[in-house]
Amino acid sequence: MNIQGRDITIGLTHSETRQVAMDVFRANFLEMRDEAAELVLQRAEILLDSFLQEAAREGLTEILEGRNPDFQYAFYSAQKEYARSGDEDLGELLVQLLIDRTKVQKRDLNQIVLNESLAVAPKLTSDQLDALSLIFFHKYFQFGGVESLADLHTRLEEFYFPFVAGASRNHSAYQHLEYVGCGGMSVLEVQSHEPFTRLYAGLFTKGFPESSLNMSLTEEQKSCLLIPCRRDEAMLQIDAIYEESIDELCERLGIDSRSLPRLKQVQVQNIMRPEEVSDDLTTALPWMAQFFKLWDETPIKSMTLTSVGVIIAHANIKRQTGEDIDLTSWL
What we know:
A two-stranded antiparallel ribbon has the order 1-4. It has a two-stranded antiparallel sheet with strand order 2-3. The chain has 17 helices and 4 strands. Helix content is 59%, strand content 4%. The chain folds into 3 domains: 14-123; 126-197 and 274-324, no CATH class; 206-268, no CATH class.
């Protein structure tokens, strides 16, 4: 009798996963003698137990990929690398990458990139991991829900500060990141102030006089669209932090879409100068002086990330901050 229907994926329990992983490890890892062999097995079990604990915290009661040879090989490779070094930071990073890998059952770009990330991560130092995390935040990410300078300062404390002191100042470290496939050097440099003034223009504009609008608006539209400038109450500014918020505001107020370019132009036409931005943020957050120095004096400003670099940066961010960022738009 032929039975047709959907494929059903049955995962492994945590105890089954543990047995399979250690069986694979013992069967494949190079033979060693006495104390070295015992230490290697201890480290392999430490990584496995850390993975299972993290899986339990995330509610993964079954490891659906546990029966997949591709996942078993990826897990074995991670155990092997951790067993060689015993580096705790690497172990935590590999656990985060393995957790992400368990969630991908289909062989697609995500799975390929995660497998490659597991192979590349052991080739990086902690200062390179912190550099990747800063590049991700400063070049590829926009904080949502920012409504004031205080909000931005809070985000910077949470997501920049953990990586600033540790990020590499060594030029060769960035050459190595390029060599292992985490990024590439671009001829276009992103200046340290630029993401702040581009992504959060409403926080860094010095305002404009009402006469510079040069468009016809009702009094109701003006009262909803314009506010006193945050930095100079004698001036005005659009009541929007983000550029896209201007679009939403105009749609809600019934302002002609042809006015959008003009409104966006006046919002940024008197934007703060680079040194004003750095002085402003450093006054509020003294440690930001380290960030600006790092960004201005190292190749970090020229580096773009590959998909592997983004995945590893994400794992390092989650490891250090607990923040699990949705990477769908980057992969």
